[in-house]
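Replying to the earlier thread about multi-chain prediction with a worked example.

Input:
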Amino acid sequence: MNRVLVDARRLLCPMPVIRVQNSVANLPAGTLVVAYCSDPGALNDIPAWCRINGHRVVEMHSTEGEYVVVLEVGAG
Amino acid sequence: MTEQRKALAMISGGLDSLLAAKLVQEQGVHVEGINFFTGFCVEGHTHAIRKRSSSKPKRNNALWVAEQLGIKLHIVDIIEEYKQVVFNPRYGYGANLNPCLDCKIFMVQKAHQWCQQHGFDFVITGEVVGQRPMSQRKDTMPLVSKRSGAEERLLRPLSARNLPETLPERMGWVSREQLLALSGRGRKPQIALARHYGFDDFAQPAGGCCFLTDAQYSSKLADLWQARGRKEYELDDIMLLKVGRHFRPKPHFKVIIAREEGEGNFLQGYRKQYLSIVSLSHPGPLALVDGEVGDKDIELAASLVARYGKGRDVPRVEMEIRTPSGSSFLLNVQPMAASSIPEQWYL
Ligand code: SF4
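Result:
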């Protein structure tokens, strides 16, 4: 499966959301986007952004100060 | 059936922008939101950085507002373009380095351009006549409409009936009668309206919507410009101004000392860009040095940093100095006494 990686480490919110948003803008529905963040706020903000814009969070986990959100691009 | 009109609401995350968008949405207009990120936004950062606030779950208020309204939100990074607004505001600064009037004009202009590109009909803001000393006065609000280029396509639903009729009202896209005539700094009508719609837990920013209205922040920014000999900044610079204690012991360098663990973690991320100092012999904060420094400067900075660690009362403390390239060396210093830190070092 095609995965697009977004590196948003060392960025504070809302920059991780902006990075994800700008990457998703050019992607077809169904694509998986994996965002790597170091601001824990991304765990709230990226899912909130997904809910209002019609995308789906499929996985979230964190390891040693790094937070990973995987989302599936919606039909928009 | 008449065509559904589309409006773009400028969403700051505060209550006024929420209510303004709601009033228009209720009239059957399709509303989407736009939020601009300048780098100075109060939004979230201090929570993200400072550990002590982490007990309260943080959220992005603009996203929260959009979710309450059930609308899409477009977040736009305007960091680069916004610099010109901060450096050369045509209408000057407010009480601090906040160029509110130019800022409003710039943002409305961006929103208006977005509308033109995306087939939207008009822009909504949560502005209220007389609420802010600079950008929301009866004489400056028409200026914002005019200079942004949005002109009649800028609607302020909370104060619409105090202002000249706009295109959406004249065309019957929205009914002027159902818009409001709020004015002044009072918050009661907004709070009552929020209650009416069932919104609670909304954000009520005290001063302005950004750090530029903060006196201490502005003085640190002014110091940065003075030290560099011109008005300039990068995103990292303005982020760092939000963090830690800032000292300028000499015109050519500055020391940033973390105040608690969260800030220390945040500063860790900058150790590849700045010289950093931390105490090895005693627990103490991480500090960064911004500027070109010599041996004497480093020693001075290290003894200042030592003052903020647990070893402040012992005769000598061992400090580790690490360069951006990763090489490090040790320095044995005497912690500076509080009384020997000159007042003018504090930024
Ligand atoms: S407070 Fe900041 S963001 Fe708000 S209008 Fe003034 S300069 Fe712009």
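The longest strand of chain A covers residues 56-63.

Feel free to reuse this layout for your own posts.
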